[in-house]
Design goal:
With about 475 residues, the protein is of the alpha/beta class. The protein contains 18 helices and 14 strands. Helix 8 links the parallel strand 7 and strand 8. Bound molecules: uridine-5'-diphosphate-xylopyranose and adenosine-5'-diphosphate. The site of adenosine-5'-diphosphate has 20 residues, from helix 5.
């Protein structure tokens, strides 16, 4: 079976970059990315590539190369579904905010809406690929909806979890560690559908990196991979607190343990806490699934990774308050960074949000500078927490587009994201413009302690004892 036309429902952080790279690597395939959000589609179609809705290093150049040739962005979902032999579902699956499983289970309403729309529109057989992060056994729910509401056409459901990390999405997509494809290996149709997707990746991914499994293994592997990665971050963050108490340096500890080839060096960077759309959501999913099978010890084990992360964020804001003589009321604190990591404009679950919320509760005035995050995004992140009114947030927090202005007159600076440019700032100039004593809280451990102390800062680095 040869695929000539692909449709992807959902033009977000996953769908956009993934389809752009598929379009680049498979010029013979027409790729159409659709979304209900007209504004987002307009932004993907914008002639000014700075306006693309997703910032990823290297992405704009590939969009420019492929858009209008074999890559299209549209809100005409029905036409795109109809034309395509293969449909990727890449819509958001946030944690439920209501009802049973509130705060834990994934909200599958967007997935279900997609499945119903595909069923309504499809007039020929289709391969449906789940790309969103989903709880185990979602594929069978999609299949059931398609089979019971469709026009009598055949649907094959594949699970093809996305492992790209934001900020490195293009590289991750071009050179993936592995590609995972789950499907129904017990039927000929299932095998054919899996082969069709294998053939697409074969355009650029070595065959031995493409793994095929049953659907449930594939779905669970995605949750497990993220849970393991998040667990490493929480583990090193737990050690960072101990380092501060004992006079050890978490960076030295991380280097020492990372050189053990069984442990490895990646994902051992202590931080103010992990964020992003996946880690917390996927672990909560895992916890919810474990609980629903009565596996309480399994659930508690993984939940601790999240509790540790919450503690790390709270510990950081507590450190700021305690150091500033137990009060930040009316003091200006400048945040450098708001994104959940560098090289992305995504802020979902960013540690900065919680740290800001805690400090606003202490009546601090906050100034925020992030190289890629828009002002409206910062306010909507805070509004989502619902801790105080939007007006109050705007009164207490300002977003600046110049880092030097953001730092001017501040009592303290807090680094929340590890943007490279922060390392090259004129720290003397910043110091001179601040209130004294001038404090610097490095939640990402990116600056040089000796240099900053020489400038005059009282400098705290996460995980480094006195
Ligand atoms: C993650 C997975 O890496 C990816 O495979 C999956 O597809 C989606 O979820 P992402 O959330 O984009 O990707 O970013 P990632 O690089 O994993 O970072 C997640 C969070 O952990 C960030 O807030 C990051 O700053 C933090 N982190 C990561 C640390 O604090 N220390 C580390 O050593 C690594
Ligand atoms: P992710 O990080 O998983 O890509 P995003 O929130 O960035 O998540 O993107 C998901 C996209 O899916 C959003 O742009 C949203 O508008 C879109 N979407 C959600 N539900 C539907 C739907 N039923 N049909 C089309 N697009 C949808």
């Amino acid at each position: 079976m040869k695929i000539e036309s692909i449709c992807c429902i959902g033009a977000g952080y996953v769908g956009g970059p993934t389809m752009t790279v598929i379009a680049k690597q498979c010029p013979q395939i027409k790729v159409t990315v659709v979304d209900v959000n007209q504004e987002r589609i307009n932004a993907w179609n914008d002639n000014n590539l700075d306006n693309l809705p997703v910032f990823e290093p290297g992405l704009a150049a590939i969009v420019e190369e492929t858009r209008g040739k074999n890559l299209f962005f549209s809100t005409d979902i029905d036409t795109a579904i109809n034309e395509a032999e293969m449909i990727f579902i890449s819509v958001n699956t946030p944690t439920k905010t209501y009802g049973k499983g509130k705060g834990m289970a994934a909200d599958l309403k967007y997935i279900e809406l997609c499945a119903r729309q595909i069923a309504k529109v499809a007039k020929q057989n289709k391969i449906v690929v789940e790309k969103s992060t989903l709880p185990v056994r979602t594929a069978s729910a999609i299949k059931s909806i398609l089979d019971h509401t469709g026009n009598g056409v055949e649907f094959q459901i594949l699970s093809n979890p996305e492992f790209l990390a934001e900020g490195t999405a293009v590289q991750d997509l071009l050179n993936p560690d592995r590609v995972l494809i789950g499907g129904d290996r017990s039927s000929e149709e299932g095998k054919r559908a899996m082969q069709a997707l294998v053939d697409i990746y074969a355009n650029w991914v070595p065959r031995d990196k493409v793994l095929t499994t049953n659907v449930w293994s594939s779905e669970l592997s995605k949750l497990t991979a993220n849970a393991f990665l998040a667990q490493r971050v929480s583990s090193i963050n737990a050690i960072s607190e101990l380092c501060e108490k004992t006079g050890a340096d978490v960076n030295e500890v991380a280097k020492a343990i990372g050189m053990d080839s069984r442990i490895g060096s990646k994902f051992l960077k202590a931080s103010v806490g992990f964020g992003g759309s996946c880690f917390q959501k996927d672990i909560l999913n895992l916890v919810y699934i474990a609980k629903s099978y009565g596996l309480n010890e399994v659930a508690d084990y993984w939940e601790q990774v999240i509790l540790m992360n919450e503690h790390q964020k709270n510990r950081f804001s507590d450190k700021i308050v305690n150091t500033l003589y137990n009060t930040v009321s009316g003091k200006k604190i400048t945040f450098l960074g708001w994104a959940f990591k560098k090289d992305t404009n995504d802020t979902r679950e960013s540690a900065a949000i919680k740290v800001a919320d805690n400090l606003l509760n202490e009546q601090a005035n906050i100034a925020v500078f992030d190289p890629k995050v828009a002002k409206e995004r910062v306010y909507s992140d805070l509004e989502y927490l619902n801790t105080r009114s939007n007006e109050e947030n705007k009164e207490q927090l300002e977003v600046k587009n110049d880092p030097y202005k953001a730092c001017h007159g501040a009592h303290a600076i807090a680094i929340l994201t590890e943007w490279d440019e922060f390392k090259n700032y004129d720290w003397e100039k910043i110091y001179d413009s601040m209130n004294k004593p001038a404090f610097l809280f490095d939640g990402r451990g990116i600056l040089d302690k000796k240099n900053l102390e020489k400038v005059g800062f009282i400098y705290y680095k996460i995980g480094v004892g006195e």
